[in-house]
Amino acid sequence: MGFTKMGPFVKWAGGKTQLLEKLHDRVPNKYGTYYEPFIGGGALMLHERPQSAIISDVNEQLINVYRQLQTEPRSVIRAVNKIDEHPCDKEYYLQMREEYNRKISNHELDAECAGLMIWINKHCFNGLYRVNGKGLFNVPYNNKQSGKSIDEVNLMSIGYYLKNAKVEILCQDFEEICQGVKSGDFVYFDSPYIPVSKTADFTDYTKDGFSYEDHVRLAELFKRLDSAGAKVMLSNHDVPLVYELYQGFRIENVDVKRFINSDASKREGKEVIITNYEV
Ligand SMILES: C[S@@+](CC[C@H](N)C(=O)[O-])C[C@H]1O[C@@H](n2cnc3c(N)ncnc32)[C@H](O)[C@@H]1O
């Protein structure tokens, strides 16, 4: 089986499908290993299909899906199709969510758990991923009936790619996975966004558990990787903090429409793409 066009298997907050062409235009023509420490839905990696890559995310369930697809994509497809045999309504959704949470509690990171994660992403409100203090998934049903929850060809292609290219899949903090970055490697950072504030004196930068200190830590890492000779690209909201943290690097503004936000007024905005090299 060859490569067909691949895309994310989940709808993910901050998913990069919209910015894809702009990001693609800025990926260097030549690089060693591709690093993506905040892989999320993986839109850019699945578009670029690097032959050697190291990807990571702190979301253990998401990483389990990548790992299961790498080793047994057919079992993941079978798991989703089995759940799809029953039409979806609120009661069924809650039943599946309970089963998913049982697996999370028991740490059962298998193909069924990956199938549940993909299915739930399709049927939960806005494709959100949110857990409570105990780590249990608590997003409500999206109240939509839908037919098949997956594109089997897409999942098989992703599985084929992950297996046949040299892709290492880790579940670690972004700083840790970058320890092995060498001169000539390419790193793409798409961290949780810095929130766009309505008031100038708004100072709470924490969103999705990613704090101001994490953004500073990321900017410091960006500078270290730059000094080490890596090519580094980063995307974020177009907010003042970004200009402070990345002063001296190339910062470009780009327009995007954000579909994942339920609030229509927040669906359009400006983002930045920062690089430490000439495009
Ligand atoms: C904006 S999303 C990435 C979106 C992705 N580029 C896409 O196309 O879907 C940010 C990701 O960072 C992950 N994350 C949050 N904190 C992290 C950390 N300290 N280290 C690594 N990943 C982290 C989240 O789980 C989330 O999947």
Q: How would you describe this structure to a colleague?
A:
The protein is α/β, with parallel strands linked by helices. The protein has two domains: 20-58 and 172-275, 3-Layer(aba) Sandwich (Rossmann fold); 66-153, Adenine-specific Methyltransferase, domain 2. It is built from ten helices and seven strands. The chain has helices at 20-26, 43-48, 60-71, 73-84, 90-106, 111-123, 152-164, 174-177, 212-227, 240-245; strands at residues 34-36, 52-56, 166-170, 186-189, 231-237, 250-257, 268-275. It has a seven-stranded mixed beta sheet with strand order 3-2-1-4-5-7-6, sandwiched between helices. Strand 4, helix 9 (212-227) and strand 5 form a beta-alpha-beta unit. The radius of gyration is 19 Å and the shape is globular. The model has no long low-confidence stretch (mean pLDDT 91). It binds S-adenosylmethionine. S-adenosylmethionine (SAM) binds next to loops.
